[in-house]
Amino acid sequence: MTEKKQGKIRIHSQEKILLAAQDEFITNGYKGATVQSIADLAGLPKANVLYYFKNKENIYHAVLEQTLDMWDQGIGDIVYSDGPKVAIEKFVSSKVQMSFKNPKASKIYAMEIIQGAQHLKEFTRTYLRKWVREKSKIFQQWIDEERMLNVDPVNLIFLIWSTTQHYADFDNQILTVMNRADYEEEDIEHVTQFLTQFILRGLEIK
Amino acid sequence: MTEKKQGKIRIHSQEKILLAAQDEFITNGYKGATVQSIADLAGLPKANVLYYFKNKENIYHAVLEQTLDMWDQGIGDIVYSDGPKVAIEKFVSSKVQMSFKNPKASKIYAMEIIQGAQHLKEFTRTYLRKWVREKSKIFQQWIDEERMLNVDPVNLIFLIWSTTQHYADFDNQILTVMNRADYEEEDIEHVTQFLTQFILRGLEIK
DNA sequence: TTTTATCTTGTTTATTTGGTCAGGAATTTT
DNA sequence: AAAATTCCTGACCAAATAAACAAGATAAAA
Fold this sequence. Notes:
homodimer; about 210 residues; mainly alpha; Arc Repressor Mutant, subunit A; Tetracycline Repressor, domain 2; DNA-binding
């Protein structure tokens, strides 16, 4: 296993390529994306792009990997000791944060799933399924202890995912509908507030 | 304006083509889709497909139009006279119904928006923006009359959209995570129940 | 039946695309 | 400074692709 040494130039170019690739894959999908277009966006000759990643599939894998890493890191964990209120506050706010700060990662992921998760089947079947099982169990404990309302934990997780990611995946629609050019810093806080309050309220025991 | 007469064969072939095209556009995106592939899926020679729709763009437009029609028809309207409870019940249940019965339409739409709404800019800017304005106003009235909690109506609409559509757009993920092969009839009822109860609870005045 | 319009499809064309390669430039190692 | 390694890129190629076309088959209208 002879690893290529990673000089500064190499790393710098790779980053440019991955950024460009992310945009290209979002706008045109995996099959519609062209290496030429990625090269143009990165300001490099096509042959150079293919020097770093030997083919299109490789570029895409690298982009996906980046995306999953981000999900892994950025996500606030749900732990039993926090209790339902704090756990949900943490989780929602970290997901909203991610959606606003890095909508592109969310979009890549969304497209991949919509199109049939052809490159992510394994991730969903193993990692994600396990994650949902574990977190559901925690919610169920809180329910059993009557610290939150008895709702289906799995659907609750889906609700949190969908509402938070929506601001990333559909940013175009949201901004157009609200007649705005871009999100602003205060939107993050506003949406976080709205969602946490709404969700916590939906789980309160009267 | 000489319209081509629409014989039975024509309509039948056109339908087959549109169904095939929908699948192809979902799996490969607009740019990645090929006319050949659509033809194969439809069981027709490529030249025949291009006889009915003179080019790829035309096929896509037809698919999009179908999608928007469905949105227009299938959506339960929100009317003031219903009051918040009934209105939300109607709206959520019609959207869930649509998501489960026709996930493909939802996916086509979602992909369009994620990719920058290149073919739907006008729809979002005019129709959708107006729709949100009108419905927000109705929610605001109910809020002013203290018939529901004071939450931001626009974000409330986004919340309903995202949670309901999630079951269509991310069906792959949901099914995999839940270790199931397909949705079943009772899932519709279950999800509708979950969402309406959760949302209404989040809007109740204590 | 004759004529006209609609439908069908094999073939062809021009362009785009993923990927290779050879050879040279720049950098690092010895 | 010599050698080795890494980096860069124009030119090239085979395959795929959107679309046009021509010529025949079928059905409808006269």
